[in-house]
Amino acid sequence: MYNQQLINPAFSGERGVPSIYTLYRQQWIGYEGAPRSGLIGFSSPFLTDRTGFGLVVSTHSVGIFQSWLATMSYSYNLPITENFAIRFGVQGNMKNIRLDFSDPSIVKLNDVDPAVLDGVVSSRFNGNFGAGILAKYKEYFLGFSIPHIFPNEIGFNKDNGRLKIAREEPHFYLSTGITFPVGTGLKLRPMVLAKYVEDAPGDLDINVSLIMQDKITAGLSYRLGGEGAGESVDLTLFYQVKQLGMGVAYDVNVSSLRTVNSGSFEIIIRYDFEPQSANDLTNPRSQF
Description:
The radius of gyration is 20 Å and the shape is globular. The strands form two sheets. It has a 14-stranded antiparallel barrel with strand order 1-2-3-4-5-6-7-10-12-13-14-15-16-17. A two-stranded antiparallel sheet has the order 8-9. 2% of the residues lie in helices and 59% in strands. The protein is an all-beta fold and 288 residues long. Strand 14 and strand 15 (230-241) form a beta hairpin. The protein has one helix at 278-282; strands at 19-26, 36-46, 48-62, 65-79, 84-100, 121-137, 140-146, 152-153, 167-168, 171-178, 180-183, 186-197, 203-212, 216-227, 230-241, 244-253, 264-272.
């Protein structure tokens, strides 16, 4: 919810203040080789209030796989009426993927496995482009994006003609949300994020957050994914102190993996280089 720039370049500079943020996520605590992610990002208006610039460097690892992604984005805001505007964004990115086949944790089911490059550390780079759009009407927003438009080959053992090389396919994201008052000093903000990629099950994140005194945001999320009842139920908390914002999240796993892990943990720290107004704190699009 606080990192939409990573999946939609139209959010670059959209909050109207230069800001830098860092995020770390440990998934499925206690499960060997489970995913870990970290990033540092920057977002700011660029030259004028109608244009924005963003930069994100992130890393992700799971098992013997590790990747680094650097993304640079640009956005342009087109006002339609006093309360309605459409923001367009484009981005370019460079990704490095690495597989460590020398890792002693690898278990081969067969003595000869053509998909495993014994004892080899393999690495490759891929470039790509992305685009997104963001429509805003008062306290409501609707965004759609494709952060990686072109399919990329991500396999390594190309010399083996019997193998079908892995491909990274385009992912589609649709996000929407609104904020409205529910009492003195209280606001409610429901949001939805839908994710789709060809030949994979659809995915959906649903979040409802309560904003208290424009400082504390407490939320409850449900992530579909997984199997059966879904992937997880998530608790979120974000606290804004002047120009510094800090947030934590804890995911309670509800899939079949719940018996072998202690949930997932995430933390984010954000610093704004200019003071925020009350509207910046309560507007749903400014919370990303």
